[in-house]
Amino acid sequence: MRPPFHNAFKITSQTANHGEIEELPGTKAESTVEAQALGDVLSLQRSHQNDPNLPNEDINTLNEAIEIGDAEEALEEEDLVILLLVYPVGCFWAKVMPTRKFNTFGFEWTLNTGSFTIKEHTATTLMANVTAGYAYSTDALLALKAKPLYNLDMGWDFQILLTLSSQVIGIALAGVFRRFLVWPAALVWPANFSITTLLYALHDKSRSDPAKTNGWQISRYRFFVYVASGSFVYYWFPGVIWQGLSVFSFVTWIKPNNATINQLVGGFTGLSLIPLTFAFLVRKLTQSIGISYTGALYSAYLPIKTSTTFDNTQSEYDVFKILGPGFSFDLSKYKKYSPIFLAPTFALNYGLSFAALIASIVHAIVYNRSELWSRFRLARKKEPNDVHMRLMSKYHEAPQWWYAALFVLGMAFGLATVLGYSSQLPWWAISPYLAGFMIPGKPIGVMIFKVYSTIVLGQAQTYSQDLKLAHYMKVPPRITFWAQVVMTLWASIVQIAVMNWTLGSIDGVCSAEQPSHFTCPNGRTFFSSSITWGVIGPQRMFGPGSIYASFNYFWLLGALLPVAFFVLNRVFPHRCLRFLHAPAFIGLLFNYWIRKRWNGWWSTYNYITAAALDSGLIIATLVIFFAITLPEVTVPQWWGNVQVFETMDSLGTAIRRTVRDGETFGPKQW
């Protein structure tokens, strides 16, 4: 029997700042999980209030978004920092700028609408998020242009078209599918909870009611300041004073030259088994140990954890030795050179990706087919009993055709990108994995379409999360649409400019030995992936007779596991099996024990605690970057900052077997 859920609310009246909240009896959630999710949202009771007269956007909003977003661009930092940086700038602007109104061609506007409202704050944060949250297409562009990688400059026009097309398609998909991902009350996007809580904490500094918070009276604003300050101070220890604390592999400090110990407990290129962790990655680590210490896949000749690819002399794989004219695969050169070898953990990532992909599809079919069909049918109309939808109905919705037109525009940019340049990508290739079969030996083409498949979907999820934040905070949909579109255009230009400046101004950028650690890890991952899927191709990597052919069994494993758990749930219908899912273990302390024992405290301070810890950490990271890393200030030179990084794990030399000069390992034919 499904439990009733009674914490639905309706607004019975509105004033400038508050709404009276009244319970609607008899409302039921569709499932226990949905009830739990709705409970999380409804714990943020202020998000069920709306004053449509509050300003949402003005010149102040646009100016702050551009300034803050550009300031954060090069650092790729979190939206919490953007939110915090926007607040003092917005308050300062509201205090000093003139409130005079201007009339331009019948359009009335002003530099200052008055006090900096929470809706202006939200709109500014959404716009700055677009600018500061970097376009993932720049990872592919780094792999193309960086000198240690492909060293191929395809021009600014190609770079801007690739970035704009992927971003615009992402916005369009988020908008087209918002009836599935944003409007339903059960789709809560928990990542927004800390953001909404922090927004209300900054704009409401009143004390908490001790009768509702287990005796605590401190305001959420003051609580945030205290916790964030503590987090800020704490990070200076692992960040500057004793950097060895950041990767606390103390056993490797005792045995710095023991390859086995450094592989098992090292935190850089090892498995980091000590200190102990209750994270769900333990299963993956155990499998990596099995691969490495049985000698399978020639793992004894490789580091246990790195994204670098290797040849049969234990050197980094030189992709240019197997490329012919036009960056295309040359089979004869490949036969003379070497097959590609992957570290056990990196190889396992591919296998688990195969399993996860098919498992997610089978799981949805087995467990959620009825709910998915129901959601699909209900998506044609908005939920009448959802308080957020009722409050948002005060505003005009962004028409569906706006997003459809945006999708067509993005596709036009995309076709111009792949057809107007030497992209190696025909218009009909649809994913990196499939493209590896359909356009074998074309690394640039496979890499570019990874942008148009995996990366575009990731961008769409990010934009959907922002749409949900605007939904929670009652920002008008049309303002959200134009905020995302305008800032995407601006951000694409800025990010391409920053990338080109970086590649042209910083010596050794994207190389593994770059002194300031500007090693372009994401770009290098794109580069390695392009070798695996594009140059050599999935047929030679995972086909019959290949080194990694056994990884195809992960497809079968991924398909069978959801069915096995479904059968177990039917045969042994115990609660523990119903929730046998790795993410259920995350947040056990706060989201179960504290919530159950001190629910009032949890409802008021849980999400602000998360926001404060993250904010203090990120602000400390920014300060350290500008004060120490960028000006190349020397950190304290003592054992905790020097000798702890002289281990085989840190140096990437934890390999159990080495080959002599002129010798090779691996198969004799490939």
From TrEMBL:
It comes from the Eukaryota. GO terms for biological process: protein transport. The keyword Transmembrane helix applies. InterPro entries: Oligpept_transpt, OPT. Keywords: Membrane, Peptide transport, Protein transport, Transmembrane, Transmembrane helix, Transport. GO terms for cellular component: membrane. The chain crosses the membrane at residues 180-202, 223-241, 261-282, 340-366, 401-421, 479-498, 547-569, 576-594, 606-628. It is found in: Membrane. Pfam families: OPT. Its main location: membrane. One of its GO terms (molecular function) is oligopeptide transmembrane transporter activity. It is a multi-pass membrane protein. NCBIfam families: OPT_sfam. Belongs to the oligopeptide OPT transporter family. This is OPT family small oligopeptide transporter. It comes from Hortaea werneckii (Black yeast).
